[in-house]
Amino acid sequence: MVTRARLAPLATGARALVLSYPNNPTGATMTRQQMRPIARLAEREDLLVIADEVYAELTYDGEPVSFAAMPGMRERTVLLNGFSKAFAMTGWRLGWAAAPADIIEAMTKIHAYTMMCVSASAQEAGAEALRSGGGEIARMRQEYNQRRRMVVGRLNAMGLRCFEPRGAFYAFPSIEATGLTCEEFCERLLREEKVAVVPGSAFGECGEGYIRCSYAASLAELEEALKRMERFVERCRKRRRPGRRSRAR
How would residue 2 be classed by pLDDT, with cut points 50, 70 and 90? Predict the structure, then answer.
């Protein structure tokens, strides 16, 4: 979790701070209390805060908190969101930004001449989603919550330590018990059991020893994938046991 103590040594001379909560790949979120010291740091160091909140509507414990809503942060926050997660419109490439007028004006100049425009049909679909999609968001969040608890429970039961994510639709378990690197784990799991997960190292060096598992699938598919993962993990453990006994002698 990002904290003021960790950020403070890095903030001197910085121009902007990026916050992505709820988080991909861990599913972590930030509470209002946790945001307060970050807001004070941003004010002290005169930082622009880029808040990626695309998973905000998929927050499971209480209402999501926007960093832009913190005292004094509206004027220094670029809020990013989109339709791909909350409205399941992945592939439509439709999103939005909210920021002070001068920043939006500068962003528009760059965007207009470097990116293709969003199709009219996608914009119409997005407008309709905003008008009448609230009930679907609630239903989807309830479904994801059920999958989240099942997936995390099964991962912990098979010995892959995993904290319960508070947002998004990912679990980020440790694979330390298998003795494999995250890339070895992912490649072998795909080859041997036909289950695809993402190595934690894809998200930086600190992700080594972890894998990202998406639970954006049906319960039946998740149950089958977890059954195969459990079978694979047990094989890995059996291969490690002789080595541990021989070292003990």
Answer: low
Read off the tokens for 219. Answer: 């319960």
Do 51 and 83 touch, CB atoms closer than 8 A? no
Domain of 148, CATH number, reads 3.90.1150.10
First vs last Cα of the chain: how many Å apart?
41
Query: Domain check: are 9 and 128 in the same one?
Result: yes
Distance CA 221, CA 184 (A): 23
* Strands annotated E in 21-101: 48-52, 77-82, 95-98
Q: Using the 8-state DSSP alphabet, how is residue 61 labeled?
A: S
- Give the model confidence (pLDDT) of 58-110 as tens digits: 999 888 999 999 999 999 999 999 999 999 998 898 999 999 999 999 999 99
Domain that holds residue 208: 135-248
CA 95 to chain centre: 17
Q: Are residue 77 and residue 140 in the same domain, yes or no?
A: no
| Whether this model's pTM surpasses 0.85 | yes
Spell out the residues 6+ positions from residue 43 whose beta carbon is closer than 8 angstroms to its own.
Answer: 72, 76
Residue at a domain's end among 79, 102, 132: 132
Last residue of a domain, one of 72, 99, 132: 132
Give residues with Cβ within 8 angstroms of 223, minimum separation 6: 150
Contact 67, 51 (CB under 8 A): yes
Number of domains in the chain: 2
Query: Do 189 and 221 share a structural domain?
Result: yes
